[in-house]
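ok, trying the design again with the full structure, not the truncated one.
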């Protein structure tokens, strides 16, 4: 795997993991303000979720990289 395909795989994995992490710990506000969506989370904590997404994506990417480099599964034949 060259560096370009490694980056592409990481970005794809990052986005998939982000959509899996986004609903974690969200709760609607007790009293929504007028004009705000009632289903919007009170505290979205996006920076925390971005950090968790980055860490999980790195672990998954390392597994994919190890699988590709080990030739356990050949992608060339």
């Amino acid at each position: 795997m060259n560096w370009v395909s490694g980056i592409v795989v990481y970005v794809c994995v990052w986005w998939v993991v982000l959509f899996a992490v986004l609903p974690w710990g969200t709760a609607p506000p007790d009293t929504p303000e007028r004009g705000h969506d009632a289903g919007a989370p009170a505290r979205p904590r996006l920076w925390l979720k971005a950090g968790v997404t980055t860490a999980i994506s790195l672990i998954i990417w390392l597994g994919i990289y190890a699988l590709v480099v080990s030739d356990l599964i050949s992608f060339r034949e």
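Keeping the full-length input from now on. The chain has two helices and no strands.
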